[in-house]
Protein backbone atom coordinates (compact mmCIF):
# COMPACT_ATOMS: atom_id res chain seq x y z
CA UNK A 1 0.00 0.00 0.00
CA UNK A 2 1.38 3.40 -0.94
CA UNK A 3 1.29 6.40 1.36
CA UNK A 4 -1.45 8.11 -0.67
CA UNK A 5 -3.61 4.97 -0.60
CA UNK A 6 -3.23 4.77 3.16
CA UNK A 7 -4.30 8.38 3.71
CA UNK A 8 -7.37 7.85 1.51
CA UNK A 9 -8.35 4.83 3.61
CA UNK A 10 -7.91 6.80 6.85
CA UNK A 11 -10.05 9.65 5.49
CA UNK A 12 -12.84 7.22 4.64
CA UNK A 13 -12.75 5.77 8.15
CA UNK A 14 -12.96 9.27 9.66
CA UNK A 15 -15.98 10.07 7.49
CA UNK A 16 -17.76 6.91 8.58
CA UNK A 17 -17.16 7.58 12.27
CA UNK A 18 -18.42 11.18 11.99
CA UNK A 19 -21.56 9.95 10.23
CA UNK A 20 -22.13 7.45 13.04
CA UNK A 21 -21.75 10.23 15.60
CA UNK A 22 -24.31 12.29 13.68
CA UNK A 23 -26.77 9.38 13.70
CA UNK A 24 -26.22 8.91 17.43
CA UNK A 25 -26.91 12.56 18.22
CA UNK A 26 -30.08 12.46 16.10
CA UNK A 27 -31.15 9.35 17.99
CA UNK A 28 -30.41 11.02 21.34
CA UNK A 29 -32.49 14.05 20.33
CA UNK A 30 -35.40 11.74 19.49
CA UNK A 31 -35.07 9.98 22.84
CA UNK A 32 -35.00 13.32 24.67
CA UNK A 33 -38.10 14.53 22.81
CA UNK A 34 -39.84 11.27 23.70
CA UNK A 35 -38.90 11.59 27.37
CA UNK A 36 -40.01 15.22 27.43
CA UNK A 37 -43.45 14.50 26.00
CA UNK A 38 -43.79 11.49 28.33
CA UNK A 39 -42.94 13.60 31.40
CA UNK A 40 -45.23 16.40 30.23
CA UNK A 41 -48.04 13.86 29.89
CA UNK A 42 -47.48 12.62 33.45
CA UNK A 43 -47.47 16.18 34.83
CA UNK A 44 -50.66 17.03 32.93
CA UNK A 45 -52.37 13.96 34.40
CA UNK A 46 -51.32 14.98 37.93
CA UNK A 47 -52.74 18.49 37.45
CA UNK A 48 -56.05 17.16 36.11
TrEMBL record:
Q: Which domain of life is it from?
A: Bacteria
- Segments carrying the region annotation (Disordered) are 1-21
Protein's recorded name: Uncharacterized protein
